[in-house]
UniProtKB/TrEMBL annotation:
Name of the protein described by the UniProt record: (African queen) hypothetical protein
Pfam families xrefs: PAP2 (PF01569)
Gene3D superfamilies per UniProt: Phosphatidic acid phosphatase type 2/haloperoxidase
GO biological process: phospholipid dephosphorylation; phospholipid metabolic process; signal transduction
Top-level taxon: Eukaryota
GO MF terms, alphabetically ordered: phosphatidate phosphatase activity
Listed InterPro entries: PAP-like, PAP2/HPO, PAP2/HPO_sf
Residue spans crossing the bilayer: 61-88, 109-130, 226-245, 257-279, 285-308
Length: 346
């Protein structure tokens, strides 16, 4: 049985392979598939490729440690200082007996620690699970490398996700400190001293919190209503994952039709429920939530289209994928013939 294949002209055929030139067609040859001889197609001529890849990875790591890590730590430190009130921020005034600021403080339905855990941990787990499943469908990747390759791909996407989340959080903290809008529970948390003596609807711009029931952090936080950070982060996280699943996970139809839509619905429910709890808990005004949602949506669009290129990243291939199990940098006939343009003559 003789089959004819068309392959890329850069492949060099070793002499031991039984190759018979085809009668017509430039760049076409025939392979005797009944032969018991071993057919090896072209070794990687440049043995320096793995070394160059390793050097590039090492240089990239050095740059990350010397530049990116200090910047990340600096931004995180600024956010923490702004959050705890170590950096002075503006406090807007209030009107006496304002009913919109007179709600009792009842706490948070979804705490900031829970939001932080969901925002940081859940996305990587979902991204890694999707990329691992996609690697299972790749019959041309060496089995030992599938777990590592999926982890690398997930890491690249997660890196962009975290980068945008940090940018979003930084902008939120700065805006909160600049605006200094009082929360709906302002009177209960702060108990401003001038509120006892002011009359009618007079506007008070200078005051001091006198509450002994709540901590200093909550008293400072009582003037940071706009915009809603809970809303922005939850909208960003939920919509990012829903968009990612739409672009990367719908190849799961061969396994399950409902898993991906179910995950998307859960993500959207989370991105809607969290903002609503900020209103029902009287932690934010409706316009605070609306502004936070807008910032979250803007961050999603920027992250997906600009940073993640709409999740069209090229497949991450390790240098070991170039080599076969014999360590001679040979690629299998099956992979080479499948990856290049083919023509079969019956």
């Amino acid at each position: 049985m003789v089959r004819t294949y068309r392959v890329v002209s850069c492949f060099k055929m070793p002499k031991r392979s039984k190759v018979v030139p085809a009668p017509t067609g430039e760049g076409v040859f025939t392979i005797d598939m009944s032969s018991t001889s071993t057919l090896d197609i072209a070794t990687v001529s440049d043995q320096r490729v793995p070394v160059q890849v390793e050097m590039q990875a090492r240089h990239s790591l050095i740059w990350h440690l010397l530049i990116d890590l200090p910047i990340l730590l600096l931004v995180a430190a600024v956010c923490i200082l702004l959050e705890v009130g170590a950096i002075p921020s503006r406090r807007s005034g209030f009107r006496c007996n304002d009913p919109d600021l007179s709600f009792p403080h009842t706490g948070d339905t979804l705490s900031i620690s829970l939001i932080a855990a969901i925002t940081i941990i859940v996305p990587y787990l979902i991204i890694w699970a999707v990329e691992s499943t996609l690697q299972l469908d790749d019959e041309y990747t060496i089995k030992q490398n599938k777990l590592l390759t999926s982890a690398k791909t997930a890491g690249f996407i997660y890196r962009d996700y975290i980068y945008a989340a940090i940018v979003n959080l930084t902008v939120l903290e700065v805006v909160k400190c600049v605006v200094g809008s009082p929360r709906p529970t302002f009177f209960d948390l702060c108990k401003p001293d001038t509120a006892r003596t002011c009359n009618g609807s007079d506007y008070v711009s200078s005051y001091t919190c006198t509450s002994t029931r709540y901590s200093r952090y909550l008293q400072i936080d009582s003037s940071r209503s706009f915009p809603s950070a809970h809303t922005s982060l939850s909208v960003y996280c939920g919509l990012f994952l829903a968009w990612y699943l739409q672009r990367r996970a719908f190849s799961w139809h061969s396994r399950s039709v409902l898993v991906v839509p179910l995950l998307q619905v859960l993500c959207i429910i989370y991105s809607v429920t969290c903002p609503l709890t900020r209103i029902t808990d009287h932690r934010h005004h409706w316009w605070d939530v609306l502004a936070g949602a807008f910032m979250g949506i803007a961050t999603v669009i920027y992250t997906v289209l600009v940073l993640c290129k709409n999740f069209s990243h090229p497949e991450v291939v390790s240098t070991s994928d170039i080599s076969s199990s014999d360590g001679n940098n040979h690629q299998s006939v099956r992979r080479l013939l499948a990856s290049g343009p083919r023509g079969v003559v019956p």
